[in-house]
Amino acid sequence: MNLRKDPTTGRWVVFLPAAPSRPSEEGPCPFCEGNESLTPPEIVAWSDAVRAPNQRGWSVRVVPNAEPLLRIEHPLERRAEGIYDSASGTGAHEIVIETPEHLASLAALPARSVTRVLGAWAQRIADLKRDHRIRAIFVFKNQGAAAGAGLPGHAHSQVIGLPVTPKALKEVLQGAQRHFQVHERCVFCDIVEQELERSVRIVAVTERFIAIAPYASRHPFETWVLPRRHDPDFESMDAAELSDLAAVIVRLLGRLERTLSEPAYNLFLYTGPNRSADPRRWKTLAEDFHWHIQILPRLGREGGFELGSGFYANTVTPEQAAAALRVDL
């Protein structure tokens, strides 16, 4: 496996020796409690009692992906072939099994269980940032087949540590940097302040977090969750913040699934990259960037216009989406 960079767009592509296989619907679910031997040995697990590794009794469990896009054991190598850049498939690809029960959705879990899931994300981000080969950590969930979810239908998320900064994150970081250079303020803090003032696009609000339908939503019912205090790094949250965020996520996803009748969606966590991996870059990031979660329902397919131009056509305004999804906390 290796990574290659498109010199016209700056986009990196992972090339694999073969396409990852999809688990069969037949047979036991490898993510259910009691089937620990069906996954690679766990990296870390959380439990309410003392337990031996890879045994029953866990509440959240993190394991390597059995067919990873990137491998932690590969030494990092970068190469140039004329105008083309490539890199070895060095990195991490982990699965966060969010519950020992065979439940399909994070919204089906109690808030205290979701708090542990969020804590697992934070722990894995902090741990992977200790590896200077890894420049960015990307956490995501694919819910439903239309969003790219594979089998089994068991609530889980994925953590990928990348040896490069992916184009989508880089665009967000650069946009935040430009806003800071002009206004000397974090653009996400400005968004939070304005949305709180005007209220029309607020989906949920607590003492510590705000969920909004963003002003220029790309997809119907797209939702962002942002901390109200400025913070570039997801892993820096304390226990109270994790608990508060879990309550927001459970209510928000539950409302989304009821309103849209169990839709497929993607959930992305955008958090600050690993600055120690490349200290020369992102010098103002601590001031100009703000971690946030994006939830994108997959209610349709992108057409030629969207794919070719990068523009999006949306049939639901964010004001309509916020009114339909709004929850009280």
Number of helices: 7
Shape: globular
Write down the secondary-structure element order: EEEEEEEHEEHHEEEHEHEHH
Helix content: 25-40%
CATH superfamily membership, which one? HIT-like
Characterize the structure shown.
By secondary structure, this protein is an alpha+beta fold. The longest helix is centred in the C-terminal third of the chain and has 21 residues, at 239-259. It has one domain: HIT-like (HIT family, subunit A), CATH 3.30.428. Helix content is 26%, strand content 22%. Strand 10 (202-205) and strand 11 form a beta hairpin.
Key features?
single chain, 329 residues, alpha+beta, HIT family, subunit A, 10-stranded antiparallel β-sheet, 4-stranded antiparallel β-sheet, 14 strands
What's the SSE blueprint?
Elements: E1 2-5, E2 12-15, E3 44-47, E4 58-64, E5 78-81, E6 84-88, E7 92-97, H1 111-128, E8 136-143, E9 156-162, H2 167-183, H3 187-198, E10 202-205, E11 209-212, E12 223-227, H4 239-259, E13 265-270, H5 285-288, E14 292-297, H6 304-309, H7 318-325
Antiparallel strand pairs: 1-2, 1-6, 3-4, 4-7, 5-6, 7-9, 8-9, 8-13, 10-11, 11-12, 12-14, 13-14
Helix pairs in contact: 1-4
Structure in a nutshell:
The protein is α+β, with helices and mostly antiparallel strands and 329 residues long. Helix content is 26%, strand content 22%. Helix 1 (111-128) packs across helix 4 (239-259).
